[in-house]
Structure formats: structure tokens, C-alpha cells
């Protein structure tokens, strides 16, 4: 039954076009009731879409994605608390703020990289708040790692990421299943190697050898 259901999802995705790149094979649909926008996982950043990497792994288009209710603190100097480069003067998809201190602004790609490196120690880089901050970042589509901080542990030689992180994994054997070739071959991000996807789950053809995750 699971295999048949997965095949049905794949057939349906092949008929849907991505609202970002307009190509067919969009397997992700906005979870907002009544919204029929579909998109490819690699197209999500360009379309300012959000995938929540917890629970039901829900995805949302740019119009229905969760947004922050807080505003940046008036004393904010419009620099990212992580890279120290300039950020937008308002909260947006690319510019986020700590919901607790409301004084720490950062680029989405900067806080995502911090989340992957910090692991279980992920917290606001300025006020160091953890739980409320982490909950909000999860809701806004930041993917967290359950591993110890990268600066406190050394990854064993030869160990590599081994699961599919697509918003909707279509593999009937699950996210941990990999094959040497074909639709369930696992491709790792060519930049950070910290995220992976089955070819089928991100609409990657057999001739596609390079893939980058949302973070990169």
C-alpha cells in the first residue's frame, strides 16, 4: 500500500509545474487550505518558501509562510549579528530577528549555517536565549541539527550524512534508505555536505551530479 501511494504521489507531482521556475515535476504543495501552489525543493529559496523541518514537515509558499510578529529594536544598527554585514531595515524572508531580545538581526542563510554548526547548543547569538528562540526559528523554516556543536566534536573520518532532508521524502523505504543509483540514490549538498536528498525527492535527473541545499 505504501509503495502504491508513493507511486501515486510521484505521478501527480510529474503533472504539476513549479510556480518559481515553471518546470514540471513539482512535488511540494503549500499546506495552506485552498492554496494550490507547488514548487521544487531547490527552488524554495528563490520563491521565498518555507519548509518546517519538524513534525509533519509542512511547506508554505511565499504568501502563506509563517512570519515574525516582532519588530527590530530601535537601537538595532542594521548589521547581522553573525557576519556583521548590512541587513534590511525591516524583517523579511531574508532578514530575521530574535523574538526574545528583539535586538539581534541576522540573515536567514547566516542563522541557518549557525544552526547546523551549533547543533544542540543553538541559541540567539546575542542574548543567548535558547528555547523560545529555537522554537521560532523552527517555525520559520530553519533546520536544526541534533548533533553536538561542530567546534566541540570531531566527525569520524569517512562518516558522511546519510538521510534525505527533502520537505517531502517520496522513498517508500524512508529517509535513511539509499541506493547506489536510480531515483533513491542520495545526493549530498555539493557545498556543505550537511544535507542530502534522494534524486526523486528533488527532481534531479540521472545526469545531475551537483546539488546545493537551501542553506547554501
UniProtKB/TrEMBL annotation:
SMART domains: PHD. This is PHF7 protein. Keywords: Metal-binding, Zinc, Zinc-finger. Residues 1-65 form the PHD-type domain. The gene is Phf7_0. One of its GO terms (cellular component) is nucleus. It comes from Pteruthius melanotis. Residues 80-127 form the RING-type domain. One of its GO terms (molecular function) is zinc ion binding. InterPro entries: EPHD, PHD-type_Zinc_Finger, PHD_PHF7/G2E3-like, Znf_FYVE_PHD, Znf_PHD, Znf_RING, Znf_RING/FYVE/PHD.
Amino acid at each position: 500500500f505504501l509503495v502504491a501511494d508513493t507511486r501515486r504521489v510521484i505521478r501527480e507531482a510529474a503533472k504539476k509545474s513549479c510556480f518559481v521556475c515553471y518546470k514540471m515535476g513539482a512535488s511540494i504543495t503549500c499546506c495552506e487550505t485552498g492554496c494550490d501552489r507547488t514548487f521544487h525543493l531547490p527552488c524554495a529559496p528563490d520563491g521565498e518558501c518555507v519548509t518546517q523541518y519538524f513534525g509533519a514537515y509542512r511547506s508554505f509558499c511565499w504568501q502563506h509562510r509563517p512570519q515574525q510578529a516582532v519588530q527590530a529594536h530601535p537601537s538595532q544598527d542594521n548589521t547581522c549579528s553573525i557576519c556583521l554585514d548590512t541587513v534590511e531595515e525591516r524583517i523579511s524572508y531574508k532578514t530575521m530577528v530574535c523574538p526574545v531580545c528583539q535586538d539581534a538581526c541576522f540573515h536567514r542563510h547566516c542563522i541557518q549555517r549557525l544552526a547546523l554548526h551549533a547543533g544542540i547548543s543553538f541559541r540567539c547569538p546575542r542574548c543567548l536565549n535558547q528555547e523560545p528562540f529555537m522554537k521560532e526559528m523552527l517555525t520559520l523554516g530553519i533546520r536544526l541539527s541534533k548533533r553536538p556543536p561542530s567546534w566541540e566534536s570531531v566527525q569520524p573520518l569517512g562518516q558522511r550524512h546519510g538521510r534525505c532532508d527533502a520537505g517531502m521524502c517520496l522513498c517508500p523505504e524512508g529517509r535513511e534508505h539509499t541506493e547506489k543509483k536510480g531515483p533513491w540514490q542520495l545526493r549530498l549538498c555539493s557545498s556543505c555536505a550537511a544535507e542530502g536528498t534522494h534524486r526523486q525527492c528533488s527532481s534531479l535527473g540521472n545526469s545531475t551530479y551537483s546539488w546545493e541545499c537551501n542553506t547554501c
